[in-house]
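User: I'm curious whether this sequence folds into something compact or stays loose and floppy. Could you predict its structure so I can see for myself?
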Amino acid sequence: MLKNNFYTLTSEIPKNESAFRVTIRLNASHDIFKGHFPGLPVTPGVCMLGIVKELLEASLGKTLTLHEASNIKFLSLIDPNQFPEIDVEVKHQRNDDGSYTADGTIFTGGNACFKISKAHYR
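Assistant: Here's the prediction. I'll summarize afterward.
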């Protein structure tokens, strides 16, 4: 779990809404940044995936597993020293089988730097 260790929320996560946008603060002193990369910290892609998943779980009040995604784009690097606060937007829908399909975007300085679309969670 990354929340309250790798990042903290600076705004509330709306519960059970089909779309939300929140601001989080990255922990620039986290050990992940010491190895990724020494002297030039970059937020790992797997952490970006994890942030979107955890925020969706918090909104729904459910534990989820990412099963597939039709498109994942890493558009720019996130340096936690340059952009300690980032915005995350998630749009989702519940499917007939009880799973969820979601799109997530992470923004730095108003610009999209990460996108996941048509992600299927169970």
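Summary: The chain is about 15% helix and 40% strand. The chain has one domain: 7-121.
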